Automatic annotation (TrEMBL):
Family assignment from sequence similarity: Belongs to the acetyltransferase Eis family.
Binding, acetyl-CoA: 84-86, 92-97, 121-122
Native species: Nocardioides aquiterrae
Keyword Transferase on entry: yes
Protein's name according to its UniProt entry: GNAT family N-acetyltransferase
Cited Pfam families: Acetyltransf_17, Acetyltransf_9, SCP2_2
Classification via InterPro entries: Acetyltransf_17, Acetyltransferase_Eis, Acyl_CoA_acyltransferase, Eis_dom, NAcTrfase_Eis, SCP2_sterol-bd_dom_sf
Catalytic residues of the enzyme: 126 (proton donor), 415 (proton acceptor)
This protein's UniProt keywords: Acyltransferase, Transferase
Taxon lineage: Bacteria, Bacillati, Actinomycetota, Actinomycetes, Propionibacteriales
Subunit organization: Homohexamer; trimer of dimers.
Enhanced intracellular survival protein domain ranges (all copies): 310-409
Domain Eis-like acetyltransferase per the UniProt entry, residue ranges: 194-292
């Protein structure tokens, strides 16, 4: 087998050349460090293979320093896996496996960080490495003028004002970061301040004939309370305006989101508004009157979560019910998790996972725990589907009741 070494990617130009070959995208004219804004230099990694072409790395990956909102209204550090690619000349030679093993070791050895997360370009890949589908996201399309009904939120929504900005305006990135960190639901991820500077980048090659990203800020009591990031695309049907609005993400508590959406569905020259990254039980669908009252609802896989340090990750979140289950976990890519654990949660929401020699009540792959980590992946359903095996009837449901949340995990911004 080819010897593969994974370590820091010290050449940003070489890093970008690999990325461009993997994703076959247009080369940008901006300097390398501008293109890599938000991805810290010490969080860029590359695989080296003897005899490889030195103009590009055989493989690359990066990590955005994120915070993940976990059950219990907590923000915990999370390694946001990104920029992953294997050069076409080095596919199927173990490069990705070597990089992900390196990543898991890095996460394990980083104080305070116990989980990794990603958005999968090809979902079939990452389940093999222990990532579980932790949230399902909706994309909801609303027609212009859609009535959004929420009697219990009218008074609060009435105190919200909205003001339009553009991503190139001063302080917009910092305002987005402050808003996002202040209001998050379990399942959402928050980037570092530099990540929002990256979101606000407007490369000419990306714009072409597109509108720059606009930010609609919501304000209450003289302070920012949320925002929507959106872009309009003009269109005319038989001389009638039929433009579209693409909403990249929507941030704020429910009354704030309601006020923002009412402004968005009332924009001039627009026929429809497409909202990305909604949760599986999104409020927008309820406000509109159900799925058939919208112009369309599409379902996608959302955030994939990888439990890297099992006992520490379980202690970091709040649990919904008591449980005492012995679980045999299969984890060949992070072998320190592999084996049998006794997982106990108490009535106060705290949990502990400890090694045990007791017989297992439940056997499952580590990706099943990743899927349930945010309260969304139903372990009892996985057992029914044959993707987890019960030695004690009811063990999967007991563990699931302790891990689940009252509402599905929120949609996550892309990274």
């Amino acid at each position: 087998m080819t010897d593969i070494e994974v370590g820091p990617a010290t050449d940003p130009e070489r890093f970008l050349r690999t990325d461009t070959v993997v994703w076959f995208q247009e080369m940008l004219a901006a300097p390398a460090e501008t293109q890599l804004l938000g991805l810290p230099a010490d969080q860029r990694f590359a695989a080296e293979v003897d005899g490889a072409d030195e103009t590009a790395y055989p493989g690359i990956y990066g990590v955005y320093p994120l915070e993940l909102a976990v059950p219990g209204d907590r923000l915990v550090p999370c390694a946001g896996l990104t920029w992953v690619g294997v050069h076409p000349d080095h596919r199927r030679r173990g490069v990705l496996t070597a990089m992900l093993r390196h990543h898991f070791e890095q996460v394990r050895d980083t104080p305070g960080t116990h989980v990794s997360a990603l958005h999968a370009s090809e979902p079939a890949i990452y389940g093999r490495y222990g990532y579980g589908l932790a949230s399902v996201e909706l994309t909801v399309t609303l027609s212009r003028g859609t009535t959004l009904t929420a009697p219990g939120l009218e008074e609060q929504a009435g105190t919200v004002t909205t003001r339009l900005a553009t991503v190139t305006d001063a302080d917009v990135a910092r305002r987005m970061y402050d808003c996002h960190r202040a209001v998050v639901d379990a399942g959402a991820v928050v980037g570092a301040p530099e990540f929002y500077e990256r979101v606000c980048l407007q490369f000419p090659e990306w714009l072409r004939d597109k509108e720059p990203w606009r930010i609609l800020f919501a304000r209450r009591d003289g302070r920012d309370a949320g925002f929507a990031m959106f872009r309009r695309t003009p269109k005319w049907d038989d001389a009638r305006p039929a433009g579209t609005v693409e909403v990249h993400f929507l941030v704020g508590e429910p009354a704030v989101r309601l006020a923002l959406l009412r402004r968005l569905v009332d924009l001039d020259l627009i026929g429809s508004v497409r909202l990305r990254s909604g949760s599986a039980d999104d409020l927008v669908v309820a406000w509109a009157g159900g799925p058939r009252a919208t112009a369309g609802v599409e379902t996608y896989d959302g955030l994939w979560v990888r439990v890297v340090d099992l006992p520490a990750a379980f202690a970091a979140r709040t649990w919904s019910a008591p449980c005492d289950v012995v679980v045999e976990v299969a984890d060949r890519h992070a072998p320190w998790n592999d084996g049998t654990w006794r997982i106990r949660a108490d009535a106060d929401g705290a949990a502990v996972a400890e090694r045990t020699v007791a017989d297992a009540d439940l056997r499952l792959p580590v990706e099943a725990l990743g899927s349930a980590y945010l309260g969304g992946g139903n372990l009892a359903a996985l057992a029914r589907a044959g993707l987890a095996q019960e030695a004690r009837p009811g063990a999967a449901a007991e563990l699931w009741r302790a891990m689940r949340t009252d509402v599905p995990p929120a949609g996550s911004m892309m990274f």
